[in-house]
Design a protein that fits this description.
It contains 28 helices and 12 strands. By secondary structure, it is α/β, with parallel strands linked by helices. The structure holds zinc ion. Belongs to the DnaX/STICHEL family.
Length: 581
C-alpha cells in the first residue's frame, strides 16, 4: 500500500468532509448560498491541512451541474472532469515551477477567453508566494479588473511573502493545523474501514508526529501499515518511526531527583546505542520539562499533549519538583539544544548536560538566601541608613559565579524572620543575592540629550538600547503606517556614525519609507529610548547583520528568543523568570 492510496482514497470531495477547517468551509458554503463568491481567494496555512483540497471542492461547487445544498454532486460531467484533473476550465498551476513572467502572461492571455464548458474558469495556483515580482505585477493587472467568469484560488504556506497589493484583492482564509484529537478520529475511521487493528497509543504517536497535517498523518499511517501489517503494536510504531520512548525522559527526571549521575551517563550511552539524534533527544526532554511545568503551575494535565496514561504520570511526577527547578532545567536543556549543533564532541556535551541537571541545587537554598537578605535589609533600615537602591544595583564586577541561570520571583518571596540571625549572612551570600537582583537593563541607563547637534557620547550604549527596543518601535509603527512597519521589521540599527543613528535596510523601497518617516521615528526613539538623535539609512544585508549582532549579545539574543517563542515569553512575563548572566 502506498501513501497516495490512503491520502487519495480519503481525500474529501465535499465541504462537509473536510477535517478541522470548519471556519473556512462554512463561510464558503454561505457565499455560495448567497451567490457572493469572490473573484480571488487566498488560502494560507501549513502544508497538508487541506488548502488545495478545498480549492478543488470550490471549483466543483461553482461549476457543478447538479449541486446538492451547494455542495458538489461529484457525479455530473463537470464534477467528474474536475476530480480527474481533465477539465480544461479548471487549471492547477504550481507556483514554484511556473514562477516567471512568461507563464503569467500566458495565463493573462487565457483569462480573456470565456470558459469552454464550465460556468467559471478556475485557476488554482499553489505555492503562489514563489512567483517572481514581475509575475506578481502581471497577475495584479488581471486581479484589478477581473473578468466575471474567472475565479482565482491561491494557496500558500507563506502568506507574508505574497505582496500586499495581491493580498488586498483577495478574500483570505487561514487554514489551521489540525488538532491531534481530530487526526486521531480520522485515523481511527480509516483503520476501521481498512480492517487494521491499532491501539490508542499508536494512534496518538502517529497523530503527534504529523504535527497538525492530516496528509502527513495518513502517510505515516501507511508507512506503519507496510512495516507492521494489519496488527499495529505500539512498540513497532516507536521502532518504525525511530521515536524516542517517553519513558526515557521520565528516567532523566528520576536521575535529577536522585542526583544519580551514574544512571544519567547510562542513559546517554543508551541513546547513543539506539542511534537517536541528540538534538531530537534534547527537544523531547525540553517538551517533557515543559509538560511538568504545566502540570505544576496549572495543577492539571489539560494543556499537556499526551495520552491519558502519561497525563496521569505528569500529574504525579509534578509533586516532586517546584517550578523554579524546572525552569532552571529548561534553561540548561534549551541552551544545549542550540550549542550541541556545533559541539565538537556532542556526546560529551550531552553527558555534561545530564551531569549538570543531576547536580542542580534545589531552589530552596536560594530561598533561604533570600530570607537572609530580608533580615539584613530590615536590620540595616532600622539602624537608619542604607541605600537599598544601590544595594539592588551593585557596581559591575561583582561575583557572577551564581550557578542558577533563571529563577522565578514567585517562588522566592522572602520570609520574615528574627533579628538574631542577621550575622549569619556571609559576604559571599550578599554577592550572590546581588547577582540575583541585577537588572539586565540597568547598565543602559541613559540621560536624555539636551542638544541633538551635540556629540553623542557613548554611541555603543545608545545603539544597544535602540537594538534592544527595536521591536517596540516597529510595533508602534504598525498602528501608524503599515508600509513603514514592514520596512522597519526588515531593517535593523546598523551603527551610530557622525552622531546619527544609521538604520540598515534591505532595499531601496524600505529605505524610502524610513526616510519619509524620519520625524515619526525620531519621536518614537525619544518616547521609547529617551534619546534625541538624527536618523540616517543605508542598504545592507540585514539578516546577516542581525545574525552577527545576536551572536555577540546575549541580551539581544534573549529578546529575540522572547519574540520568537511564546513559551519563553510566558516564562518571563507570567512566571517572572529572568536571566542572570
Ligand atoms: Zn456535479
Amino acid at each position: 500500500m502506498s501513501y497516495l492510496v490512503t491520502a487519495r482514497k480519503w481525500r474529501p470531495s465535499r465541504f462537509s468532509e473536510v477535517v478541522g477547517q470548519e471556519h473556512v468551509t462554512a463561510t464558503l458554503l454561505n457565499s455560495l448560498r448567497l451567490g457572493r463568491v469572490a473573484h480571488a481567494y487566498i488560502f494560507a496555512g501549513p502544508r497538508g491541512v487541506g488548502k488545495t483540497t478545498v480549492a478543488r471542492i470550490l471549483a466543483k461547487a461553482i461549476n457543478c451541474l447538479n449541486p446538492q445544498n451547494y455542495e458538489p454532486c461529484n457525479e455530473c460531467e463537470m464534477c467528474v472532469e474536475i476530480s480527474n484533473g481533465r477539465s480544461i476550465d479548471v487549471l492547477e498551476i504550481d507556483g514554484a515551477s511556473n514562477r516567471g513572467i512568461d507563464e503569467v502572461r500566458d495565463l493573462r492571455e487565457s483569462v480573456r477567453y470565456t470558459p469552454t464548458k464550465a460556468k467559471y474558469k478556475v485557476y488554482i495556483i499553489d505555492e503562489v508566494h514563489m512567483l517572481t515580482k514581475e509575475a506578481f505585477n502581471a497577475l495584479l493587472k488581471t486581479l484589478e479588473e477581473p473578468p466575471p467568469h474567472i475565479l482565482f484560488i491561491f494557496a500558500t504556506t507563506e502568506p507574508h511573502r505574497v505582496p500586499s497589493t495581491i493580498l488586498s484583492r483577495c478574500q483570505r482564509f487561514d487554514f489551521r493545523r489540525i488538532e491531534i484529537q481530530k487526526i486521531i478520529e480520522r485515523l481511527k475511521l480509516i483503520a476501521q474501514q481498512d480492517k487494521i487493528q491499532i491501539d490508542d497509543d499508536s494512534l496518538f504517536t502517529i497523530a503527534k508526529k504529523a504535527n497538525g497535517s492530516l496528509r502527513d498523518a495518513m502517510s505515516i499511517f501507511d508507512q506503519i501499515v507496510s512495516f507492521c501489517g494489519e496488527k499495529i503494536k505500539f512498540d513497532d510504531v516507536i521502532k518504525a518511526l525511530n521515536i524516542i520512548d517517553q519513558e526515557i525522559f521520565f528516567r532523566v527526571t528520576d536521575v535529577v531527583k536522585e542526583k544519580n549521575i551514574k544512571a544519567g551517563l547510562e542513559i546517554v550511552d543508551e541513546i547513543v546505542k539506539l542511534g537517536y539524534d541528540f538534538q531530537d533527544f534534547l527537544s523531547g526532554l525540553s517538551e517533557h520539562l515543559r509538560n511538568l511545568l504545566v502540570a505544576i503551575t496549572t495543577k492539571s494535565a489539560e494543556l499537556i499533549e499526551a495520552t491519558e496514561y502519561y497525563k496521569t504520570r505528569y500529574i504525579n511526577e509534578a509533586k516532586n519538583f517546584n517550578e523554579s527547578d524546572i525552569i532552571r532545567m529548561l534553561k540548561i536543556v534549551n541552551d544545549a539544544e542550540i550549542s550541541i549543533k556545533w559541539a565538537p564532541q556532542p556526546r560529551l556535551k550531552l553527558e555534561m548536560v545530564i551531569t549538570q541537571l543531576a547536580s542542580l541545587d534545589s531552589t530552596i537554598k536560594i530561598q533561604e538566601l533570600l530570607s537572609k537578605l530580608e533580615k539584613i535589609e530590615k536590620s540595616l533600615n532600622s539602624s537608619g541608613g542604607v541605600d537599598t537602591e544601590n544595594f539592588n544595583h551593585p557596581p559591575k564586577g561583582g561575583n557572577e559565579t551564581e550557578n542558577s541561570t533563571i529563577i522565578t520571583e514567585k517562588s522566592t518571596k522572602p520570609k520574615p524572620s528574627s533579628k538574631s540571625e542577621v550575622s549569619s549572612l556571609q559576604h559571599d551570600d550578599i554577592e550572590k543575592i546581588n547577582a540575583l537582583f541585577k537588572d539586565p537593563l540597568a547598565k543602559y541607563e541613559i540621560k536624555p540629550h539636551q542638544d541633538s547637534e551635540q556629540k553623542i557620547d557613548n554611541p555603543e550604549k545608545i545603539l544597544n538600547l535602540v537594538r534592544e527596543r527595536w521591536d517596540e518601535i516597529v510595533n508602534k509603527a504598525q498602528n501608524y503606517n503599515l508600509n513603514l512597519s514592514t520596512a522597519l521589521r526588515l531593517s535593523y540599527p546598523l551603527e551610530i556614525k557622525e552622531n546619527k543613528l544609521n538604520i540598515g535596510t534591505a532595499n531601496d523601497l524600505h529605505l524610502d519609507w524610513i526616510k519619509k518617516n524620519r520625524p515619526f521615528l525620531k519621536a518614537k526613539l525619544k518616547e521609547i529610548c529617551n534619546i534625541d538623535i538624527e536618523i540616517d539609512t543605508s542598504i545592507c544585508d540585514v539578516e546577516k547583520l542581525k545574525e552577527e549582532i545576536f551572536q555577540y549579545s546575549p541580551d539581544l539574543k534573549l529578546k529575540k528568543l522572547i519574540n520568537e517563542s511564546p513559551f519563553v515569553k510566558a516564562l518571563i512575563e507570567n512566571l517572572g523568570a529572568r536571566p542572570i548572566d
